[in-house]
Specification:
The complex is a heterodimer of chains A (114) and B (112). Chain A has 114 residues and is an all-beta fold. Helix content of chain A is 0%, strand content 49%. Chain A contains no helices and 11 strands. In chain A, a hairpin with a 2-residue loop joins strand 5 and strand 6. The radius of gyration of chain A is 13 Å and the shape is globular. Chain B has 112 residues and is mainly beta. Helices cover 0% and strands 54% of the residues of chain B. In chain B, strands 2, 4, 5, 9, 10 and 11 form a 6-stranded mixed sheet that branches. In chain B, strands 1-3-8-7-6 form a 5-stranded antiparallel sheet, with no helix packed on it. Chain B starts with a strand and ends with a strand. Classes of the chains: A mainly beta (114), B mainly beta (112). Chains A and B meet through strand 4, strand 5 and strand 10 of A and strand 4 and strand 5 of B.
């Protein structure tokens, strides 16, 4: 199993440009998540999904959009990129359960907006 | 409102000694707590978890202690090894919740 894969690994965007961060998991997990990590900060939840066709906002959703058309894929869309979106983005997935289940993370996408 | 706090941004420990990483939380509804480890340029990986019905959970060199009355948990690593140098995140959630709340992380450096 490849686990959680993310593309691209790095990207530089100009202000106002758009892009999609790709995330795929091959573990048949129902739950998927997008986080951002700013320097010296913890992981902030952007959006999450509990299954195909179902998405919900996390702590910092402004400036982002998601879709979940399949169990495997959970792309994150940035519209009108801003310098404040410079960050490292992590995708994760997990099984639903009682609450103590671990989340499996991808390797991250480092995004710079200039 | 920071519901999960790791007040020490960094910690330096000598190889072979004990590393103790601390985490405080404010939401009394949390009943699961997890620790993740993160190396540079990689995603976090799960390390160990504990349910609120326990006060201790061990896995090899790693032990997590939970003090519910103080809303405090700690991760003990003994003996510390150079490969333990990483950023450690504490996370929490409660039964039925579909998402974790993470602390800011503590960078642990093990010195030879």
């Amino acid at each position: 199993n490849a686990g959680v894969t993310q593309t691209p690994k790095f990207r530089i965007l100009k202000i106002g440009q758009s892009m999609t961060l790709q995330c795929t998991q091959d573990m048949n997990h129902n739950y998927m998540y997008w986080y951002r990590q700013d320097p010296g900060m913890g992981l902030k939840l952007i959006y999450y999904s509990v299954g195909a066709g179902i998405t919900d906002k996390g702590e910092v959703p402004n400036g982002y959009n998601v879709s979940r058309s399949t169990t495997e894929d959970f792309p994150l869309r940035l519209e009108l990129a801003a310098p404040s979106q410079t960050s490292v983005y992590f995708c994760a997935s997990s099984w639903p359960g009682t609450g103590g289940e671990e989340q499996y993370f991808g390797p991250g996408t480092r995004l710079t907006v200039t | 409102d920071q519901q999960v706090k790791q007040n020490s941004p960094s910690l330096s420990v000598q190889e072979g000694r004990i590393s103790i990483l601390n985490c405080d939380y404010t939401n009394s509804m949390f009943d699961y707590f997890l620790w993740y480890k993160k190396y540079p340029a990689e995603g976090p990986t799960f390390l160990i978890s504990i349910s609120s019905i326990k006060d201790k959970n061990e896995d090899g060199r790693f032990t997590v202690f939970l003090n519910k009355s103080a809303k405090h948990l700690s991760l003990h690593i003994v003996p510390s090894q150079p490969g333990d140098s990483a950023v450690y995140f504490c996370a929490a959630n409660f039964q039925g919740a579909q998402k974790l709340v993470f602390g800011q992380g503590t960078r642990l450096t093990i010195n030879p």
